[in-house]
Design brief:
The structure is a single chain. This protein has 779 residues and is α/β, with parallel strands linked by helices. It folds into 3 domains: 2-369, Alpha-Beta Barrel (TIM Barrel), CATH 3.20.20; 398-593, Glycoside hydrolase family 3 C-terminal domain (Rossmann fold); 661-775, Immunoglobulin-like. Helix content is 27%, strand content 18%. It has 20 helices and 32 strands. The strands form 10 sheets. It has a 6-stranded mixed beta sheet with strand order 12-19-18-17-13-16, with helices on both faces. A 4-stranded mixed beta sheet has the order 10-9-7-20, with no helix packed on it.
Length: 779
């Protein structure tokens, strides 16, 4: 067919590939269920999906003949090519790029792929449509058209790996599958800190610590963009709870802002050169974040010299001209406000130079990342192509929290019977809800109504932004089947845990009891407290009373309380472990994988130990404005516990292995920052992976919390093996932000360096003197 004078190929090869793929899947009824939701079974629906795929492939195919125009010269810089494109564009074409259109049928443009939103391109100039997908733990919102992607473990689970290479692999898979489906913008990448442990979106975050969060997310986003799909970092900024998220006023002193929330964004942007930044729903300094000139222009575009574009969170725009002048470049998902910018330009209320800057940023990013010259050509994605990556992430992110008397790993040869109890462990593993919900291949494994939330009926949830009945989804990875596969000679029995007496009776009759407990968290809703819902604490206690060899496996989106901790023999933190979560859990339970995950977030003993015992705004009526006063400042997570001399239930960085490690020989020297050298030895009988962590205490004159994370590594060690580790601490990570002078400074004085395997276990220490230094932001 022809479009705007350019010939576009019909993508016949893609059609053949897609139809062959679908017909082969039809022939295998078992795999057919993996391709489409269980509710879709008619052949007609299957053929409609095939037709849709063919249409997508045809629409997305690049032109057969190269477009003509000076902007097609790949030897020019991305900025120069964007300028040349701008010169060739009409005002209407420019405005077409600065807001979205409905993405899903029936109202959408037929060129839309039906993702989170869609921005039509300019075919005559070769400017591609922007097809945007949601999902931080995979590409989501595809199942209604029979399109699936790998359900990865949650970002928090990946964060628990403390593995930068794995974070890159995590993001690379999201980029690969997003591009395969046909998307060219991925909206995954949360830099917000776990400042509020009851936040319903904590599972999307990487850590409570800005350095760990920023560096891990930076590699995640780099992995995505290296696949030639534009990445996104969100939600800028201080968006740390869901209660009243559309307008609460976040109040945080400027120095603390820069050293916590902004630091995570800065590190991730610096390390990834991510193409888009999404501004948040909430207010900061009296202005909505999406029309906040301090955040979007003064910080992001001026202080950080950010070259990409700023898009709003979905429905987060509250004005047209004001937001654009403040630094917002693109309104999503529609043009409710930005559609009026043309009239504003005509009336000279909006300078043309600002529109050109908005469009330049979009075009430059498309060229720099590669979607302009090499647009994706969609093709079907097998939902299990990323299964190995998903399982590897889960295995490295699972944290062993307790292991009394070597209860784990289990020895199948010595166990006659195993009881699996609770959390639909017979059929699947839990996932978090909201816009990070990756569609489960084959449908919800535990297809049922959402949990009842006893004592927490819908009227008691405050500040709801999404439907209160957002369903809990279990991915079809069965712990029961996985455990049976590891212990084929054992009698392995499942009990749902809904009848406490029956569960305890089964536990008493079994050699080992494994209780799966869950906390379903979701976008749009915070948790009222950190207790497990639905009487699960009592379930654990009943089972533990009946069987002293009780193991608890947690599937949760953030810190939880454990009033039964002293009554069980082992605790495994599995988070939301993804499509191969059961296999990963079983490998850890039976010792085929030596757990190496470390907590990226502190677990408190009670809500009373938190900076705010109740989440801000919880008692405020929906729609009523309120303040969130972050009086703890830069004392987030472990820094709060250290500064307030409170002992957490489990400390930041904590995790147990099936072997043991020792530390020795610390040396610290000054240079371009600090060089830290020490030795780690595996003192046990199993091969294992240790995560040595370096913390620094700044001079007392700096007025900082007792210590901060500044470096870490992952070390594989055979039994008895020792390795010398050398880590470089860049000066920036030792700096403080001078709000008055608006710059980072390295205070002069004595710095204490601590090395160990958690924030509360640092057996090595040394002191080093550093001179004062002004720090460049982007060093």
């Amino acid at each position: 067919m022809e479009a705007d004078g350019y010939i576009i190929d019909g993508a016949s090869e893609a059609k053949t590939e897609i139809l062959d793929y679908i017909l082969n899947r039809m022939a295998a009824t078992k795999t057919f269920q993996c391709l489409f939701p269980s509710t879709i079974s008619r052949i007609s629906t299957l053929l409609l999906a095939a037709a849709a795929w063919c249409a997508f492939a045809q629409q997305a195919s690049p032109p057969a003949a190269a477009l003509k125009g000076p902007w097609m010269d790949k030897s020019l810089s991305a900025d120069r090519r964007a300028d040349l494109l701008l010169q060739a564009m009409t005002l209407g074409e420019k405005l077409q790029l600065v807001y979205g259109l409905p993405a899903r049928w029936p109202k959408a443009d037929p060129r839309s792929f039906g993702g989170s939103s869609y921005v039509p391109g300019i075919p005559r100039l070769g400017i591609p449509d922007l097809q945007m997908s949601d999902g931080r733990s995979g590409v989501c919102l595809n199942g209604y058209l029979g399109r699936y992607a790998t359900a990865l473990p949650s970002a928090l689970c990946a964060g628990a790996s403390w593995d930068l290479r794995l974070a890159y692999e995590y993001g690379s898979l999201v980029g690969k599958e997003g591009r395969d489906i046909g998307y060219n913008v991925s909206l995954g990448g949360t830099a917000n800190l776990i400042r509020e442990p009851r936040n319903g979106r904590n599972f999307e975050c990487w850590s409570e610590d800005p350095v760990l969060a920023g560096k891990m997310l930076g590699q995640d986003l780099k992995g995505t963009q290296d696949r030639k799909i534009i990445g996104n970092i969100n939600r800028f900024a201080v968006n740390d709870q869901e209660t009243g998220r559309s307008g609460y006023q976040a109040n945080l002193e400027k120095r603390a802002l820069w050293e916590t929330d902004l630091l995570a964004f800065l590190l991730a942007i610096r390390d990834s050169q991510v193409g888009t930044v999404m501004c948040a729903y909430n207010r900061f300094n009296g202005e909505h974040c999406c029309e906040n000139s301090y955040l979007l222009t003064d910080v992001l575009k001026k202080a950080w010299n950010y070259k990409g574009w700023v898009m709003s969170d979905w429905g987060g725009t509250h004005s047209g001209v004001k937001a654009a002048l403040a630094g917002l470049d693109q309104e999503m998902p529609t043009g409710k406000h930005f559609a009026a910018l043309e009239e504003a330009i005509e009336k000279r209320a909006m300078p043309m130079a600002r529109i050109d800057d908005m469009v330049h940023r979009i075009l430059r990013t498309e060229i720099a990342v590669g979607i302009f010259d090499d647009p994706p050509v969609p093709h079907p994605v097998n939902p299990f192509t990323g299964a190995e990556v998903a399982q590897r992430v889960a295995e490295k992110g699972i944290v062993l929290l307790k292991n009394d008397r070597g209860q784990l790993p289990l020895d199948a040869a010595r166990i006659g019977s195993i009881a699996l109890i609770g959390s639909h462990a017979d059929v699947g593993v839990l996932a978090g809800g909201g816009s990070d919900q990756v569609d489960p291949a084959g449908g919800n494994a535990a297809s049922q109504a959402p949990p009842s939330r006893k004592g927490r009926d819908q009227k008691k949830w405050s500040g709801l932004e999404w439907p209160a009945t957002w369903p809990a989804v279990w991915h079809p990875s069965s712990p029961l089947k996985a455990v049976r596969a590891k212990a084929p000679r054992c009698k392995v029995t499942y009990d749902p845990g809904t009848d406490l007496v029956a569960a305890a009776k089964l536990a008493a009759a079994s050699g080992v009891a494994i209780v799966f407990v869950n906390q379903h968290t979701t976008e749009g809703r915070d948790e009222p407290d950190l207790s497990l819902p639905d009487s699960q604490d009592e379930l654990v206690r009943r089972v533990a009373s009946a069987n002293k060899r009780t193991i608890v496996v947690l599937e949760n989106g953030g810190p939880v309380l454990m009033p039964w901790l002293g009554e069980v023999s082992a605790v495994v933190e599995a988070w939301y472990p993804g499509i191969r979560g059961a296999e990963a859990i079983a490998n850890v339970l039976f010792g085929e994988v030596n757990p190496s995950g470390r907590l990226p977030v502190s677990f408190p003993k009670s809500e009373a130990d938190l900076p705010h015992p109740e989440i801000a705004g919880w008692s405020v009526a929906k729609g009523q404005a309120f303040d969130v006063n972050y009086t703890e400042g830069f004392k987030v997570g472990y820094k709060w516990f250290d500064a307030e001399d409170k002992t957490p239930l489990f400390s930041f960085g904590f995790g147990i292995s099936y072997t043991s490690f020792s530390y020795s020989g610390l040396r610290a020297s000054a240079g371009d920052g600090v060089k830290v050298t020490f030795t780690v030895r595996n003192t046990g009988k199993r091969a294992g992976t240790e995560t040595p962590q370096v913390y620094a205490a700044l001079p007392a004159s700096a007025g900082e919390p007792p210590k901060r994370l500044v470096a870490w590594d992952k070390i594989d060690l055979a039994p008895g093996e020792a390795k010398q580790v050398t880590l470089h601490v860049e000066p920036f990570l030792l700096a403080v932000y001078n709000a008055g002078a608006e710059k980072w400074e390295l205070p002069a004085g004595d710095y204490a360096v601590f090395v160990g395997n958690s924030s509360r276990h640092t057996p090595l220490s040394a002191t080093i003197h550093l001179d004062s230094l002004d720090i460049s932001l982007m060093n």
